[in-house]
Structure formats: structure tokens, C-alpha cells
Amino acid sequence: MASVTARATLDDLYAVEGKAELIGGRIVRQKASGHLPSIVAGNLFLHARLHTKSIKRGQAHAGGVGYAVPELPSGRESFSPDASCYFGPLPAKCMRFIEGAPDFAAEVRSENDYAPAAELEIAAKRDDYFQAGTQVVWDVDPVAETVTCYRASDPSNPVVFRRGDIADAEPAVPGWRIAVDEIFAE
Hints:
- The protein is α+β, with helices and mostly antiparallel strands and 186 residues long.
- The chain has helices spanning 10-14, 35-55, 116-132, 180-183, and strands at 20-23, 26-29, 59-62, 67-68, 78-79, 83-86, 98-99, 104-108, 136-141, 146-151, 159-162, 166-168, 177-179.
């Protein structure tokens, strides 16, 4: 006799300690990242936060914030990017997830994000972001020291920023520019 597992909900996700996402009715825990990915994500958040404060618009978020979205065809109901910016209305209860997709999401690769299966997962998550309404997704690679910028308007033609370049997240984060060297500064 097969056992039926109850479908997890966003309320169940709230009860999970640590970073996790809700996909296909399952809570998918995310591994802790190492030193370098954490530094890179922190640099992204810091610079994005300074920008949103300077323009007095939007909110930058560090890793761990949850974005709740209507269930996508993949089954995904939430995101928890490593760094993000959001320009929509904030939740009435500020301790809850943000309702809607981030305008900008940065996913920083960790040690286990370089195998062929991981590449497929990264691409699928990027597709989910775009289906949910995210305008720009960065695939940040601390090993190669590159930022691959995917835009919802042309997801098949990413722009790769390298050391010495100035990266942008237009149109998601208007006016924000960051030196790639700053992203990877330890």
C-alpha cells in the first residue's frame, strides 16, 4: 500500500529553519554556502542596498528572504535568492514573505553548482524566475569570477560581465552599476 505524503504549504515553509523553497508541494532545503559565495552574495546585497537607499525606491534583500509566487507550471511557489531587489508593495505583515517575484535576483554558485545536473537546475530556476515576473537574473560564478546577466526580454542572449567590467541590472534596478571587481573583492 503506497503512503500519501501531504502537500507542503507556504505556512509549512515558514516553520523551516534555514534557507528553503517550496517546489511541487515539497520543501526543498538549500545547502549552506561556503566562505567565498557568502562574501560575494554579501557584496551584491551591500551595493544594491546602498543604491536603493540612494534612489529612495525599492528594497534590496540579502539571502534568506522569501518571495511567494502563485504556483508555476514547474510546481514552484517560492524563491529565496542570494541577493535581490524588489520594487513592489511590501507585505502588510513585515515578518512574512514578499508576495510576488523579485524584480532582480542574483544566484551565487556554490561548490556543488558546477555539474551538468546543476546546470539544468540553474536554467530551470531561471526560467521559473522569468515566468513569475522577474526582469533580470544574475548567475554569479565565484570560480570564473563572472556575472552572467539574463534579461526576461531576451533570455537566450545573456551578457557576461568579467573583472574590469561594470555590471548592470537594467531594467530591473534602474541606474545601478557595480564594478565586477567589487563583487569578487574579499
